[in-house]
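Lecture 7, part 2: worked example. A protein chain together with pyridoxal-5'-phosphate.
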Amino acid sequence: MGVMNEIEFLRSVAERAIRYRVSLTDTPVPPTADPSALRASLGGPTPEQPSDPAEVVRRLADAVEAGGLMAMDSGRFFGFVVGGSVPAALGADWLVSAWDQNTGLFAPTPGTAVIEEVAGRWILDLLGLPPHCSFAFVTGGQMANTTALAAARNHVLASVGWDVETDGLSGAPPVRLVAGDEVHVTIQRSARLLGLGTRGMLHVSVDRNGAMLPSALDEVLARSSREPTIVCCQAGNVNTGAMDPVGALADVAHQHGAWLHVDGAIGLWTAAARPSRLPGLERADSWSTDAHKWLNVPYDCGITICRHPQAHRAAMTVTASYLVQAAPATDRDPVDWNPEFSRRARAVPVYAAIASLGRSGIVDIVERCCAHARRFAEHLARQPNVVVLNEVVLNQVLVRFLVRGGTEADHDARTRAVIAGVQKDGTCWLGGSTWRGLAVMRISVSSHATTTEDVDRSLDAIHRASIGAVPIAN
Ligand SMILES: Cc1ncc(COP(=O)(O)O)c(C=O)c1O
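Predicted complex, written out as structure tokens:
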């Protein structure tokens, strides 16, 4: 492809991407494509010969955009906990691909490495965390938890004289892992990846909304012998949005010599908006969060923050003779803090999001999403035979649709039917979950793009679905 052809080609792809974004305001939110049609249009034998790049991209985009995508950046997408993408972050993300920098080391790409340094410092400031903390930009909350727990594992074992990085876990003193009854599954997977396992994990009781109880943590830690201990709490329960009382938990954990990790994939950004939602957050030992959730940066980016840079670095650093490694006192090599070796410059869109929104813009997104969640809850709770099961403290709403005089199984079936009806209607998309054994509709408001009109159109869609709902058996 000649230079002129490449320019034309890239321009046409950019225009196509822009058309897709613009279409999000009005298109149905859920995917509509038949998977077999997608396989037929995208499949075929392994290509043996080159093809025209413009034709390749046109064909794949035609196939995928014919109903193969969920409009996750629509203001009416309320599934899982998925943010949209603010324009500055999306534009910066395009540049990341165009620049194509391997941002593992400082020396070969000082520009993106400095952006990462600055974005990390801004995040510490926005969240009110100690300025000396180390940080890493990873792929998401899963790897942010894993990186933080690797640092924790290093630290708690070093405190009893065991060098886990050199000697591994075979023969090591046991590490006690403690988490709330509502622990997110990614913490369990981190425990598996780090060789800590899940069988021995001790569970701590939570309150009605799913927040960990400090007194219960105290009891659990007092019950077993003092050994290297990591406690995982969370800021933002994946179902209810409940925030664990981090400061109080940090105090209890530290009285017992434990490390406190905060899984803040969902809720940590509220610390920028309203620190009173997370009093004492700064007293924890490590934190994880996502930029692709509430900061509204395109997928993917998670962030690990650690109060103990030495443990964090020891858990992650690598050296090799062919690398051009920085003197830590002057420059920062991302490879020292990340589990990845080669890596995308994923801090660049984070930098752009923070620079374009400013603190007040981030606060606005968080507060608007929480207000939209409350609007959903208030309107739905006024409907006959509809109950909101959680206390709406954040951006999450759990809704149950009842059958008059029915059993819990009847309510489960009707709730599932309403969810299916909303998904079929296509005005918005939301999913289901189970809360305390009961089927619920789960609404998560995480996008900067959501307006009050989006909420009201979605409430109408839920209402339509609830009238026509034919219960679905379990
Ligand atoms: C509390 C919590 N932790 C961790 C994660 C995992 O984040 P990610 O999907 O970015 O890996 C999630 C995802 O929703 C979450 O809710």
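Residues 81, 140-142, 184, 186, 234, 236, 238, 263, 265-266, 290, 302 surround pyridoxal-5'-phosphate (CB under 6 Å). The chain has 15 helices and eleven strands. Keep this in mind for problem set question 3.
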